[in-house]
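Protocol step 4 of 5: obtain the predicted structure for the target chain.
Materials: sequence only (see below). No template structures provided, no constraints applied. The aim of this step is simply to have a reference model before the mutagenesis design in step 5. Sequence pasted as it appears in the construct record:
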Amino acid sequence: MSTRFVFRCATKADLPTIRRLCIEGVIRREPTCSYLGLSADIFVTLYDELMRQINFNASIVAEEITLEHPQGRIVGCMMATPFDSPMEEKNIDPQCAPVMEILHSLEVWFKETILQKEDVPPSRVLNAVLAATEEGYTGKGLLNRMIDHWNACAVNDGKWDMTVAECTSPFSRRGGISKGWKEGKVIVYKGFTSINGQKPFAGLDGEAAMLYRDLRPLKTPKARL
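Step 4 output (structure tokens):
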């Protein structure tokens, strides 16, 4: 049976499918959320804040074209927001706090170490905030292909000097590094201490990592807005 993938910018009409993909994918396969046992109702409070300012020009979906779905069926997405997008932490369930602390630690490092050195304002940084695929598509190369198309969208959008991703999953981390992203701060889950002195991921193997890429050498003069 023939099948192919089409990659395109996400639209508002895609949001219900994207929401389902991200929530199901994260609570089942993302290490920190699955370790904490976050339910969909709890994680959605974090999801809604992460996705408050979606950049549709640089967010993509992957559609699978088959005989059963000749018009395409969304099986993957990679979503983007400005790095300086505000978040209302009061709207996020307290059970998500350990995940938020991991993300915050990576972001502070990036601001103080990379952005200051490169003299890039946070408003010129695009954040790959969430990526997800349908169950059964992990390990088949779909994520790497989405990263390729997402990178191209970020460059072509013209507004961004750098891209960044807080990778809490080994799949996104390996995929980003294989596509030319640099690895910055790394947090070992077992050794992470929260602000209350506890180790919320004491039994979790693995690491979170901050990946980033400088887009300025890749942009044509026309794309430098």
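Step 4 remarks: The two ends are 45 Å apart (CA to CA). The longest strand covers residues 73-82.
Proceed to step 5.
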